[in-house]
Amino acid sequence: MSDATRTTAVAPAEANLLARLWQRTSRIDPRYLIAGLITLVLLVAQLRYHMFGGYTRLVIALGVCMATEAALSWFDRGRVVNLQSAYISGISLTLLTKPQGNALWPFVIGGFLAISSKYVLRYREQHLWNPTNFAISALLLAAPSKVAVLSHQFGNDLVTNLVIWVFGLIIAKRVGVLHITLTYVASFLVLNGLRALALGQPLFPELAPVTGPMYQLFVFFMITDPRTVVRGRRPQMIVAVIIALVEAMIRFASDQGWPLPTAFNAAPALVALWLVGPVAKWIDLRRAGPRKPAPVPSPGVQVAPPRSARGSSPVASGAR
Fold first, then answer.
1. What pLDDT score was predicted for residue 32?
2. Cα–Cα distance, 254 to 252 (Å, whole number)
3. Is this model's pTM higher than 0.90 or not?
């Protein structure tokens, strides 16, 4: 067999292997893929840049988030729900929250605020804010002199950024939110590029925040949160553009020296999502109307299962 023949034979085999691997990942619960991605960000941030400020913060944030989720879900639903959301919130709080000194109370209060907001600030049985976004924004607004947000960037380390972005984009594609991430990133680059030109500032420093862990957590976990995004691909992209536009307006106002709360200057992206996200979600739920209650069968009448459920796959059944 010639070398050319071997090459043409190996190429389809590799393509089939990748296709089978991609198909198998579709059977994994998206929550575990997201949890795996944030764990990757966590490991990179700590092992390479030592961003924790102490493992005690991680233990407290995770402990409070998971304990609050378990307690409130038991009280609200009569059972303990999957704690993946609490895990993601705990790691995000650990990475993003930077209190003054060695204070630990922001991780306690932040963890409680993040999870309790899911059970208190709801409309038609759905929460309106991304939990971590709500908690960090609330801490920045309430105690700006005591709490700061992560400003460390991965800088020009190409390998670090490449690993996180490649895995992040692949998982976003698998979860079905890649269009939201790309729309926001494109809007951020365009709007901040225009702002830099309008103010006569260098371009690349204005675009550099995208390389930081705060924005990576933002584009992969907050703005794409499946529980708080609106319905429909086009509305989701429109909301992403609006969030980027509000963020650019906050940055422009800060450049002009307008009197803004410290939180607006410290974390314009988080504040933009904090302002726009719940309003968009409320409008979306309002337009959808209240959920219709399931019909109650008469005594002695056996109700057949829906036709679509009879042939449902284990993936679809597990995702409900």
1. 75
2. 5
3. no
